[in-house]
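Could someone model adenosine-5'-diphosphate with this protein?
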Amino acid sequence: MKPLLEIKNITMKFGSLVANEDVSFTIHENEIVSLIGPNGAGKTTLFNCITGFYKPFSGNVVYRGKDITGMTSYEICSLGITRTFQIVKTLNEMTVEENVMTGAFLHTRSRKRAARTTGDILELTGLISKKNILGANLTIADRKRVEIARALATNPRILMLDECMAGLNQTEIKDVMSLCLRLKERGLSLLIVEHIMEAIMPISDNIVVLNAGKKITEGIPQDVVNNEEVIKAYLGDRYHAKSKKS
Ligand SMILES: Nc1ncnc2c1ncn2[C@@H]1O[C@H](COP(=O)(O)OP(=O)(O)O)[C@@H](O)[C@H]1O
Ligand SMILES: [Mg+2]
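Reply:
Sure, complex below.
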């Protein structure tokens, strides 16, 4: 099967700092791919290169066979690739419903149609009972949920989540995990940046590991967590110690 998204030899530099170096991997339809690695490994930079916030120094991003490198973030989002931000960008003076509706307006100017899409997404993400709460009054978990809901309202084929589980409690993490699986069931593909291995292991089809800008390996979760280089660069004993205990 042809990949939905191909990341081809992406290199991104900030002056002399090489934040991504020759990174390649693919995402297929209906697949959950996770991107892991220590802080500063280049995960967010890669998100920015894929979604048009940065133009990579070299390499290509190919979506459904079309080279989208250098297109604007707006164009890329319109084509079906939407991301959330590591630092949440809730619109504080707007209600939950209005926050999500801003995403829905990407594909329609009709308020009625945008409201219908928004209603569906609020149901799907468990936010319907909070639709009238102002952004400013939300908990961190709900802000993150709104961020995902707003991204979903743009009707993406690929949803990219940048550390959307950080700072959440166990129950909230479980909620995001089950939402990810529900989205996959609906036919979406996901690219997830996350540090919580216990959360991404059970839901990922493939895990890509970055360290100091370079991809060091990729594979199914069980292989990746047992990879010596990954343990040395990132996991250390923390994941293994936990998995041995349980
Ligand atoms: N806009 C920028 N300007 C300069 N350096 C940056 C910028 N964005 C990221 N970097 C640097 O690039 C490297 C990778 O950062 P980042 O992609 O944020 O890593 P991660 O998301 O994996 O923690 C870091 O050394 C960071 O300081
Ligand atoms: Mg980051």
